[in-house]
Design a protein that fits this description.
This protein is α+β, with helices and mostly antiparallel strands. The chain has 29 helices and 13 strands.
Length: 762
């Protein structure tokens, strides 16, 4: 389909292809976000060789190096900006995470070990403790004189924190807590710093006093002495080699009647008096539990950003390589094609590039929301709940996207992508665990789904029977209208069979928003209706009904997260000044939005939201967008702002471009000098009188007559061979035509075999 067939002014105008350019400085500043200085400082550290991962190190040496790197971070004062001003911090929560995310470019092990020390262990003391804990424990945490452990996860209970087995029982006689792991499944597991370096831990345990279990609370528990040996009653094991992040000493801990002072309870949300009386500012045990866990949401926020930082780095490597690497000839037999000029390669890279921009803009909104809550500027129960839901919706999508992008870049770079020197494969190994860090992605999406169901039910609260009937009737009418095909029929009338009109509707922001929003609302309503029928069932039967709808609920949550990303992208576009940068980025937003619709096209067709004509036009228009965005691919990844010291990949250093230049100049010189050998195919096409060079020839640049061909004759030979290969036969009989067709098929098979062999060698 030609460009004109779509009648798209933005894409068809000469300015669209010839004059649209990206201002990488403008776009780069927009991507840096509100905390640009802190993010640039994080990148400065990531570009310092002292913080780089050394791929030659075995696990013990890698762990030792990472420990030294954390000591250097502490000495630089780089970790203090989120802590209270009374302890020498800046209380800059958003800036802290913005800079922390960039450390993934140095070494993910460094980033995560730092996150354990200051983002989990330290943050737990800061957010769950009170003034006594800040004054007593934070100084050692901040200067790294007390390496710490965040001991929440258990072997038997990972995401289900409320069901953990570790207990902390109050002894009124001694005014101490007795911490105990009563069975093997209650051991704390997968803990960073636990195997070797940790000196103290924030241990999550069920608080028991006066025979009452008040649920999970956090306790500050010393675990090792100055000699590095476990204290009495404490034991542990090393988790050993992992699938990634082997610079971190993950391990497991167990406690046998370990005693700590009463004041070691981090008591912001629950306290116990000397006589064992429990008190809390939050009366509801369930709300208290989720409030305590909600204060630690920054781990999910930081993983959301760090995953996309890794995806950006992978794309910068992959796109740069694809802009330089050439493979296979097409229109020009003497010039191989740049990889990124192939449509399939554009599909693989540019669609993920569009998603990466959407994730980046959504993360900036998440980071601002996080800072608003934790700085106290917008700290309300409602905003905290929104923050938790937002983080739970975006973290799964960004970590999955980061992992899949790195895998695609690995494959797109061929064998070079598998080499450690090009980093993509190693980044993939390290980021694998991000999908279950700070909450398994599917569990988080269930939390989002429950919030969506709660919001759906909210519209019925306080409504009189008439209003409820109107809402239900409206939803039923919408289902009938869509399911009957009336919506599709209306689209056909409007489009009048024109693909251009179909595209014209789909590329408008209002229509993309309507389609994405409608999918979320419909999926949530369908699940809500099915679950609503379970209210009259027994608890077991109701649980079975919920289980039957679990997949649908998670899919609705994913659709909600995708809508949030699209909305964030569109908001960012609205904030850009008019011009070519905004124009190109609008194409990128459309690629992301239409890509979501294409991915879920079966749903839109089955539910009558799109006619088959509009559905078919989605893919056709995406192909158009890929062509238009392709010239800007390098600018789009350059705007990420990552230099050679951040990427540290040889295939993104210009080495491939130099190899291609050398090969091109050599082959051009050989052809110009007449030294290039003739191919066997061309020789056969010239006729039976031609002969192959003899073994006695001193060089291969001697033709069948023994004379050295001139450049002009060599060019003529090449043209003659090409003409012989492409000129159609005339005056042939049916039998001769059949023979010719068979020969052509054989020739095509031979070309395919040659390409397969070339791919295998490359």
């Amino acid at each position: 389909m030609s460009d004109r067939a779509l009648n798209d002014h933005e894409l068809d105008s000469p300015a669209a292809a010839d004059q649209a350019r990206i201002d990488t400085d403008l776009l780069g500043r927009r991507l840096l976000g509100r905390w640009a200085d802190e993010r640039l400082e994080g990148r400065r550290k990531a570009a310092d060789p002292e913080y780089w991962r050394d791929d030659t190190l075995a696990m013990p040496e890698h762990r030792a190096r990472t420990l030294q790197q954390l000591e250097r971070l502490a000495n630089d004062g780089a970790v203090n900006i989120a802590f209270p001003k009374a302890q020498g911090g800046d209380e800059n929560h958003g800036g802290n995470i913005a800079g922390f995310e960039e450390l993934v470019l140095a070494d993910p092990s460094l980033q995560i070990k730092a996150g354990v020390q200051w983002g989990l262990f330290g943050a737990a003391v800061m957010h769950l403790g009170t003034a006594y804990h800040h004054e007593t424990f934070l100084p050692g945490i901040m200067d790294f004189s007390v390496p710490g452990i965040y001991a929440m996860t258990e072997t038997g209970h990972g995401s289900d924190v409320a069901a953990i087995g570790t207990t902390a029982t109050y002894d009124e006689a001694t005014q101490e807590w007795v911490v105990n792991t009563p069975f093997r499944g209650a051991w704390k597991d997968y803990l960073g710093n636990a195997a070797l370096h940790g000196r103290a831990a924030v241990v999550f345990a069920k608080l028991i006093t006066k025979g009452v279990d008040h649920g999970v609370h956090a306790f500050y528990v010393p675990v090792r002495g100055d000699d590095g040996e476990f204290l009495s009653g404490i034991g542990g094991e090393d988790d050993g080699v992992k699938g990634g992040l082997n610079g971190i000493d993950n391990g497991r801990l167990h406690f046998t009647q370990v005693r700590v002072p009463r004041r070691n309870l981090l008591n912001r949300y629950g306290d116990v008096a000397e006589d064992g009386t429990y008190s809390s500012p939050i009366e509801s045990p369930g709300r208290r539990f989720f409030t305590m866990l909600g204060t630690l949401v920054q781990g999910r926020v930081s993983l959301d950003g760090a995953s996309n930082a890794a995806a950006k780095a992978g794309l910068a490597i992959g796109v740069t390589y694809a802009n330089q690497r050439r493979q296979f000839t097409a229109g020009d037999p003497n010039e191989e094609v740049v990889l990124l000029d192939y449509q399939v390669h554009q599909r693989r890279l540019l669609t993920r590039l569009a998603t990466t921009y959407a994730v980046a803009f959504a993360h900036e909104q998440l980071l601002q929301h996080f800072h608003g809550v934790f700085s106290g500027e917008h700290d309300t129960p409602e905003n905290r709940e929104d923050l938790e839901t937002l983080a739970a919706a975006l973290k799964p999508l960004s970590t999955w996207h980061g992992l899949s992008t790195l895998q695609e870049m690995r494959e797109a770079c061929g064998g070079a992508g598998f080499l450690a020197e090009n980093r993509v494969a190693l980044l993939h190994h390290d980021l694998d665990i991000y999908t279950t860090f700070e909450g398994d992605n599917h569990v988080l999406l269930q939390l989002v789904g429950k919030r969506l169901l709660s919001d759906y039910a909210e519209q019925f609260k306080g409504a009189d029977p008439k209003r409820v009937a109107q809402i239900v009737a409206g939803q039923a009418a919408e289902r009938v209208f869509s399911g009957s095909g009336l919506r599709s029929a209306a689209q056909l009338v409007v489009d009048r069979g024109s693909t251009a009109r179909s595209v014209g509707v789909l590329r408008t922001p209002d229509e993309q928003r309507r389609l994405l929003t409608d999918r979320v609302e419909t999926m949530v309503a369908d699940v809500a209706v099915r679950l609503g029928r379970a209210k009259k069932l027994s608890k077991a039967e109701g649980a079975a009904v919920f289980n039957e709808n679990q997949h649908a609920l998670i899919e609705a949550s994913i659709a909600h997260g995708e809508l949030l990303q699209w909305e964030a992208f569109t908001t960012a576009l609205d904030e850009l000044p008019a011009g070519s940068t905004k124009q190109v980025l609008t194409w990128v937003r459309d690629l992301f939005g239409l890509g979501l619709i294409e991915r879920h096209l079966a749903w839109y067709l089955l539910n009558g939201r799109l006619s088959t004509q509009r559905g078919a036009s989605v893919t056709r228009y995406i192909d158009r967008l890929l062509t238009r965005i392709r010239p800007h691919a390098q600018d789009l990844v350059d705007a990420f702002g990552y230099g050679p010291d951040h990427l540290r990949a040889k295939i993104a250093s210009g080495a491939e471009a130099e190899r291609q230049r050398e090969a091109r100049e050599y082959l051009q010189a050989e052809r110009a000098a007449g030294r290039a050998p003739i191919t066997e195919k061309a020789l056969k096409a010239r006729g039976s009188n031609a002969k192959l060079p003899t073994e006695s020839s001193s060089t291969i640049d001697v033709d069948a007559t023994g004379a050295k061909p001139s450049p002009a004759s060599a060019a003529a030979d090449a043209a003659e061979a090409a003409e012989a290969e492409t000129e159609p036969a005339t005056d042939t009989s049916p039998a001769e035509e059949a023979v010719a067709a068979t020969a052509a098929t054989d020739d095509a098979d031979e070309r395919t075999a040659e390409k397969r062999e070339s791919v295998s060698e490359s």
